Amino acid sequence: MKLLTANFISCPVRTCKTSPTSFPLHFKDCELACDPDGNPYSRETLLGVLPRLEWDALRTSAGELGFTELPVEKPEGEVVGEEVLRRIWELLVQTHVVTGKMVCGNCAYEFGIQSGIANFLLPGHLV
Amino acid sequence: MSQSQSCLSSIPAGTASYETEHVHKVYEIIAPHFSATRFKPWPIVENFLKGFPAGSVGLDIGCGNGKYMAVNPNIFIFGSDRSQNLIGIASKQRHHEALVADALDLPHPCSRFDFAISIAVIHHFSSQERRVEAIKSILSTLKPITGNKSETGGKALIYVWALEQKSSRRGWDENSVQDVFVPWVMRKNFAAHQTEQTYQRYYHLYRQGELDKDVSDAGGIVCESGYEKDNWYAIVQTKVQG
Fold first, then answer.
1. Where are the domains of chain A?
2. B6 pLDDT band (50/70/90 cuts)?
3. CATH for A3-126?
4. Which of A32, B89, B92, B222 is most buried by its number of CB atoms within 10 A?
């Protein structure tokens, strides 16, 4: 699972949908890997996706994985330096959680990640 | 002649357990064989995905083996499916993301997505109520239209199997039964113990106009709809609720 994906994931439990604490889910016990070949850098794609990101949530998720260098304000526009953009791209789509958990801040349910794939199927009592 | 059987089951239709038995379990077993037969993107879906600008984000709900993920490398698709085996295959599309999830309980925030596709998925829900729920679930993820400007809203493309397919090898027409079991014959080389086996999947075959009605019952707006090669499709949007 990519850090980018975590920015578009919230708890699937219906009663959590309206709770602001169900987004983002919180990473726990994660092992990371880097996959630069699967996602070669594209400035155009990154500039397109930046406005779509919830920046505060991204900083939270990145911090939980040990990356604390993201600026407080979202870098926007053509003036942003190439080096900054490349580092954001590395974090967003080239850094993967291989195993770990994502925890809902509202219901505390833990969703597992194994072999890079997160499982959001709910047990019967939460559907 | 229809090759399908009537839906005899000990489990009542219109329930999650019916779909677990007659849809999810079957896909889990046939996944490698099914995936080997699913590689060519349908043109309308391909054109739909190619129409979004770089950096657009969207969902492929019921993505199966992820065959649509390769279509546009400048957008990001988060694909989900109930079948862990199919998601294992889809996860090889490393530019995108593959998740195990249920279409009725999607793990996504509301109103964030530029697009969604759900290709050959909604017809596996076993009551009209559940099919409408699934469409509602998809609509809730889209950016809603604001100020009556359709370009402000996200778009979803939904495909379902048509009842009207007289010329296909299934041979159904408008007088056929709509709720059917459709056999999947698992070839020897994919089956356990190297013997050919047949599995039955549940389908609701959509009649002309029925998809548009389900979309409107789900609160959606149909921008475009039509028939392509044994399937009905609709491109849909949603408005701000309230």
1. 3-126
2. low
3. 2.20.25.10
4. B89
Q: Is residue B178 part of a domain?
A: no
Domain-located, residue B1? no
Cβ distance B77 to B64 under 8 Å?
no
Taking an 8 Å cut-off on Cβ atoms, the answer to whether A9 and B108 are in contact is: yes
Q: Do B87 and A10 touch (CB under 8 A)?
A: no
| Cβ contacts of B95 on chain A, cutoff 8 Å | 38-39, 93
Distance between CA atoms of residues B61 and B210, nearest Å: 20
What tens digit of pLDDT does each residue of B115-128 get?
Answer: 999 999 999 999 99
Q: Say if strands B76-81 and B57-61 run parallel, antiparallel, or are unpaired.
A: parallel
By a Cβ cutoff of 8 Å, what residues of chain A touch chain B? 1-2, 4-5, 8-14, 17, 23, 35, 37-39, 42, 44-52, 93, 111, 115-122, 127
Count how many domains chain B has.
1
